[in-house]
Amino acid sequence: MNPSTPRFYCGIKHGYPSPYRGHSKPATLKPTSSQALPLRSIRPKEDEDGATSSYLNHSDGKRINTDLVFTSALKKQYPELDLVVVPEYSNEGSQCNLLTFAGAGYATLTPIQDKGDLPSSLEWTVYLPPARRMDGNKGYLGETVVFGKFLYQWEGEEFIVYLVDGRDGSEPYPEVKN
């Protein structure tokens, strides 16, 4: 089973050593002054969320390159912010799962509910099988995010984070999350 790949993250600053890879050196992306704006001052240029609209329009038919379509929409919607696209899993074995990082207590993650007719997020309910069934454990139900928009707070900074599942590529059913 192939792990999911890229997820989109907008304006990320990461200075902790990776809890996933065991490296002692922190990986840091230097923030710019535009990244440090409080969420209250970050407003889309348009009334509706153009990034969400472009993702849904792109996903209802033939897909060519979700990265290109979505990053273009985000740059139009938030021209004052720097955009950083980070793969959740890369071919080099590195991981950058911001949802897990927040779930471990290192950051705060809050879903952003947009006004309008378009859904703000899409989650799937998935079955998580137990490691073994001999003790009677039947497993659990969990949620996996297919598309979502979040307020991410870390070390006093606020970021807008989009999680995007884009099934692009040459494989019949490639898994690509940005």
Q: How does this structure look, described?
A:
This protein has 178 residues and is of the alpha+beta class. It has one domain (7-164). 16% of the residues lie in helices and 22% in strands. It has three helices and six strands. Strands 3, 4, 5 and 6 form a four-stranded antiparallel beta sheet that branches. It has a two-stranded antiparallel ribbon with strand order 1-2. The longest helix has 12 residues, at 66-77. It is globular and about 55 Å long. The two termini are 18 Å apart. Mean pLDDT is 71; it is low at 1-43.
Task: List the total number of helices.
Answer: 3
- Overall morphology: globular
Summarize model confidence as the mean pLDDT.
Answer: 71
Largest sheet: 4 strands, antiparallel
What is the end-to-end distance? 18 Å
Q: What's the helical proportion of residues?
A: 10-25%
Number of domains: 1
Q: Strand tally, please?
A: 6
The percentage of residues in β strands lies in: 15-25%
Supply Rg: 17 Å
Low-confidence stretches: 1-43
By helix and strand content, what is the structural category?
alpha+beta
Order of helices and strands: EHHEHEEEE
Write the layout of secondary structure elements.
Elements (H helix, E strand, L loop, with lengths): L6 E3 L40 H10 L6 H12 L6 E3 L11 H6 L4 E4 L10 E7 L11 E15 L2 E8 L14
Antiparallel strand pairs: 1-2, 3-5, 4-5, 5-6
